[in-house]
Amino acid sequence: ENVSFRPSHHKHFFVPKLLLLLTMKTAAIFALLAGSAAAFAPSTKPETVTSTTLFESTDIGATAPLGFFDPLGYITDESKFVRYRAVERKHGRIAMMAMLGTFVHNNKWTFDGYVSPSNDLKFSDVDSGIGGLFQLPAAGLAQIILVCGFIELTWWPATQLDGDYGVRLGKINNWDQEPGKEIRQKNAELNNGRAAMMAIAGVITQEVFTGQNLAEQFSALHVSPFGDGQGYF
Description:
Pfam families: Chloroa_b-bind. This protein is an all-alpha fold. Helix content is 48%, strand content 2%. Strands 1-2 form a two-stranded antiparallel ribbon.
């Protein structure tokens, strides 16, 4: 029997299906949460070993209301900080794209034609929730992973920790002419990325437990999954 990742009538998951989903998505959820764990560390200017003197409240990423936030004292040297900041930025960018994709696909905006002609699978046939990932042929997923790896190795290398790949969009980010804009925009990127990491982790988790994607949950006013009689609970 083919496993359906969206239960009919959006009621209860069968236990084997829930366990399968949890197993397949646990790694993704923890990866996103690990990225967001670095999400509250600030930015660069390190010299000594005490975090209070390492960074200033004006550094990129140290924004109101928390400012510099490192209660456990993880940031003790410059190289560690720069690495954590790069990881946070990268995961934030991925999460923002993931949320954009969620909004687009949940609204059933799809490409015309076939995602896999050999499997007679159209773009419109792919589930709009996380189950769609497992409807794609293995060869298709492998192609996506290979393309992402190629981009990271050749165009946007992970070893370039400043995250600046030289993309300029005219007046949108003309930082040479308006230095203040650079700080504002980099802070906005980090904060939006932090929000997106938490959001996509929540979207994945709620769909696993309720069987409804984001759009379905809102349209059904399913705002209390632990007590309104819908979904898994």
